[in-house]
Each structure stands twice: as C-alpha cells, then as structure tokens.
Design brief:
The complex is a heterodimer of chains A (about 110) and B (about 110). Chain A is an all-beta fold and about 110 residues long. Helices cover about 0% and strands about 50% of the residues of chain A. The chains are: A mainly beta (about 110), B mainly beta (about 110).
Chain lengths: ~110, ~110
C-alpha cells in the first residue's frame, strides 16, 4: 500500500532563499491538497488541485508561494524569498474524490528558515 | 463554518477505553464529522467519519448524539501507540464536494501503563 509521499522530509534554509517541496499522491487520486502546520497548531488549508487545475487558494498563500500539479500527478510547492515566518510543517493530502471524501496525508516536509 | 470544541488533554490507562468528546453545536444538517489523529512529527491519520448514525471501523467507534451537536470518539482498548493529538473536524465543502479540513488544536491523548 503506497501512501502519500513527500520530499524532502526536512529542509533548512536561509532567509531569502527559494525552496521547493514535492508531493506524490496516492496513485489515481485526482484531488490534492496542501496544508501548513505551525508549532502547537493544527494544519491549515493552503490550496487545492483537482487533476492539474488549481481551483482554490487560501489567503494564507501569499504571492511568494506557488503550487503546481503538472499532468495531474505529483505536485510541487515553491516558496520564494523565504522568511522566518515560513518555518512550519508543509503537509500534502490526496483524495479519490466522491461525495464523502477522505483525505490521506503524507508525512510532511518540515521547513526551518534561519 | 461549524466550530468544534475539544478538551485540551486527556489521559487513559493502557487497555482501557478512551472516550474523546467533541462539541459541534453549530453543525448543519448535511455536514459530516471527521476524526483524525496526529502522532508526534507525522502527518495526520484518518480515523473515522459520520453524519448522524453511529459508525465503527477497525480503529474506532464514533457516537453522534441525536441532535448532532456533539460526538464521542471511542478507542475500545487504548495502547501506548494511540498516544497522539486527536482532531474532531466538521467538514466544510466547496466546489461541490472538495473539503477544507479545519483542524483546531485537538485533544492530546496520553496513554499510560
């Protein structure tokens, strides 16, 4: 059973650098979500893809953030000009859709901006 | 959006049932209740969901009150591996059936020997 995978698992970067994270959803899941989780808080929704189309973005997703899902398979989340406030766990979830969907989460990428 | 209220923390002895309450008094008639848990430094793990009837799966049981204003997640025989933060979520849908899961701060369950 191959679940959602994310790479890298940990990333340390200096303020001002760009970083990119990758998410590989469960095979044939057409829905993909990104969430962000800061210390002591629950995850917060960032953005949603249905196949290759990005259909919803949270106001948390500033213009320094961009996400893609080419060909409707894996997805990438890029943060440009990182800030210390971007330090968080970035979580990806996928779902097969349906009326009552269940989202399955990956292990997350923990980002630390120095 | 329906808001959920959970106790901040609970303890449970290993082998005993863990009963985790959740209040969602503003839930709408067609909104589902979901439970996830998050073990330290891992991604959230789906446990169970329900609308109005009680539900059971291999992990847990979900009891929803008749007025749907509250629910209880039951882990029948808690083990040390069940130590985690448990989130009760009222699913918010958009664009038809896509979901934004609003996690809140959850209940930290500590299972002890």
């Amino acid at each position: 059973d191959t679940g959602v995978s994310q790479d890298p698992r940990h990333k340390i970067t200096k303020r001002g650098q760009n970083v990119t994270f990758r998410c590989d959803p469960i095979s044939e899941h057409n829905r993909l979500y990104w969430y962000r989780q800061t210390l002591g808080q629950g995850p917060e929704f960032l953005t949603y893809f249905q196949n290759e189309a990005q259909l919803e973005k949270s106001r948390l997703l500033s213009d320094r953030f961009s996400a893609e899902r080419p060909k409707g398979s894996f997805s990438t989340l890029e943060i440009q000009r990182t800030e210390q406030g971007d330090s968080a766990m970035y979580l990806c979830a996928s779902s097969p859709g349906g009326w009552v969907e269940t989202q399955y989460f990956g292990p997350g990428t923990r980002l630390l901006v120095l | 959006d329906a808001k959920t209220t959970q106790p901040t923390s609970m303890d449970c002895a290993e082998g005993r049932a863990a009963n985790l309450p959740c209040n969602h008094s503003t839930i709408s008639g067609n909104e589902y209740v979901y439970w996830y848990r998050q073990i330290h430094s891992q991604g959230p793990q789906y446990i169970i969901h329900g609308l109005k009837n009680n539900e059971t799966n291999e992990m847990a049981s979900l009891i929803i009150t008749e007025d749907r204003k509250s629910s209880t997640l039951i882990l029948p025989h808690a083990t040390l591996r069940d130590t985690a933060v448990y989130y009760c979520i009222v699913r918010v849908t958009f664009l038809g059936t896509a979901s934004k899961l609003t996690f809140g701060t959850g209940t930290r369950l500590q299972v002890t020997l």
